[in-house]
Write a structure and sequence with these properties.
GO terms for molecular function: aromatic-L-amino-acid decarboxylase activity; glutamate decarboxylase activity; pyridoxal phosphate binding. The protein is α/β, with parallel strands linked by helices. 37% of the residues lie in helices and 15% in strands. A seven-stranded mixed beta sheet has the order 1-7-6-5-4-2-3, sandwiched between helices. The chain has a four-stranded antiparallel beta sheet with strand order 10-11-13-12. The site of pyridoxal-5'-phosphate (PLP) has 15 residues, from helix 5.
């Protein structure tokens, strides 16, 4: 029948028309809004084709940030993407979940009272660092003014290895950054040279639990003890903030006897990244104060918005709520035992990798994954044909993203490669990685002469 014939021709036409030859769809502007709308399928395909060119997140050994969650988490994510964290009046249950997470973390980090704990979710550790730093600065200013002393030259003391967020904090909020330089083979802040940099204008010392550079822990307890002695002799009280971006979710499970948290009275605040070893997709961090006294009330805004009084201490206003929901999911799903199992597995894989590297004459292991599950290693002095940047490039050919970079000032002579072992990086994947590393090194070793040098080796931004 004619009608049938017409329909089938139409169907045929539709099925064979490739999307990109649709009239008007041959050219899509990249840097300005297209003049007309397009079908959602076409837009989807264009965007998917672009993001496909990004690396495979599971092969990304550079990042500390979660790249895998289980199916239930993915479903929960999809079901809660529309929640705005700031609309606490509209989403009271999400707000309640946030409070529960804060109490759970206060308990995990041994706050004097988890019931009376004070804290908030943040966009990530960076926002947490800014908020904690601001609280330190404000408390220092208040104390100085109360004592009728000048409050115009605050400084903050930290190791030369701190993550860039602390440079930002000092720059944005006009606090003098004082970096304790690295020395010898210790790549983080140690108490011995700390006091050369501390004085009555110090708003606080930042101790890092899990250095971005090599995954090592700064000795928070000894740093506090040194500041105790300083206070006893000078009368100057210097509080400590712990940047536990990664370690906040590792140490309580893998090194439970390490004393680094609110058990130390001098530790006034701690921040950590839920989206790193907190095992949640990017977009969530946490910052907690030991008690309400350490978060100056005048930093907290009370917003009368959308129907209720809402206390907020945040740099952002609107922010996704789904990641907070996912954090709660992970807490419930894993519990302490589950977290311990996941993080221990990461550490076992990291230690396996570092042991294998130790047995390879081409490499020197700088950190072996026994603190954070992070392995850093350099090319040994005997190797003359290639360097860490060449190894990093060769590994990319196999899909592995392993950054190469130099250590901070005073140890810039040392260039390393870093592997971050995260949830989902199994022993099997580690074996594949080590096999590809071996292949890369054999290829480089077989060269008839040294690799040509770049004027400026590519740099990695932490
Ligand atoms: C020690 C440390 N502090 C702060 C940050 C910033 O964390 P985020 O990416 O969660 O903002 C990082 C990130 O790697 C880090 O390693």
């Amino acid at each position: 029948m004619a009608v049938h014939e017409a329909r089938s021709r139409e169907a045929e036409d539709l099925s064979v028309v490739p999307r990109f030859t649709r009239a008007g769809m041959l050219h899509v502007p990249k840097d300005r809004l297209p003049d007309h709308e397009m079908l959602p399928q076409t837009a989807y395909q264009i965007v998917m084709d672009e993001v496909m060119l990004d690396g495979n997140a599971r092969f990304n050994l550079a990042t500390f940030v979660t790249t895998w969650m289980d199916d239930e988490a993915d479903r929960l994510y999809a079901a809660t993407v529309d929640k705005n964290m700031i609309d606490k009046d509209e989403y009271p249950q999400t707000a309640e979940i946030e409070s529960r997470c804060v109490r759970m973390l206060a308990d995990l980090w041994n706050a004097p009272s988890s019931e009376a704990s004070v804290g908030t979710s943040t966009t990530g550790s960076s926002e947490g660092c800014m908020l904690a730093g601001l609280a330190l600065k404000r408390r220092w200013q208040q104390a100085r003014r109360a004592a009728k002393k000048p409050a115009d030259r605050p400084n903050i003391v930290m190791g030369g290895n701190v993550q860039v967020v602390w440079e930002k904090f000092a720059n944005y909020w006009e606090v003098e950054p004082r970096y304790v330089p690295l020395e010898g083979d210790v790549f983080h802040l140690t108490p011995d040279r700390l006091l050369d940099h501390v004085d009555e204008n110090t708003i606080g010392v930042v101790a890092v639990l899990g250095s971005t550079m090599d995954g090592s822990y700064e000795p928070v307890q000894e740093i506090c003890a040194t500041l105790d002695e300083y206070e006893a002799s000078s009368g100057v009280h210097v509080p400590v903030h712990v940047d536990a971006a990664s370690g906040g979710f590792i140490a309580p499970f893998v090194q439970p006897d390490l004393v680094w948290d609110f058990r130390l009275p001098r530790v006034v605040s701690i921040q950590s990244s839920g989206h790193k070893f907190g095992l949640v997709y990017p977009g969530v961090g946490w910052v907690l104060w030991r008690d309400a006294e350490h978060l100056p009330e005048d930093l907290v805004f009370h917003v009368n918005y959308l129907g209720g009084d809402m206390p907020t201490f945040a740099l952002n206003f609107s922010r996704p709520g789904a990641q907070v929901v996912l954090q709660y999911y992970q807490f419930l799903r894993l519990g302490k035992e589950g977290f311990r199992a996941v993080q221990q597995a990461c550490q076992d894989v990291a230690v396996h990798i570092s042991r294998t590297l130790e047995a390879m004459p081409e490499f020197d292991v700088v950190s072996d994954g026994r603190e954070l599950p992070v392995v850093t290693f350099s090319v040994s002095e005997a190797v003359t044909k290639y360097d860490v940047y060449d190894v990093s490039r060769k590994l990319r050919e196999h899909g592995w993203l392993v950054p190469a970079y130099t250590m901070p000032p005073k140890r810039e002579d040392l260039a390393v490669l870093r592997v971050v072992v995260r949830n989902g990086f199994s022993h099997d994947m580690a074996e594949l990685f080590l096999r590809d590393l071996r292949t890369a090194v054999d290829w480089l070793d077989d060269l008839s002469g040294p690799m040509p040098r770049e004027e400026q080796p590519s740099t990695f931004h932490h």
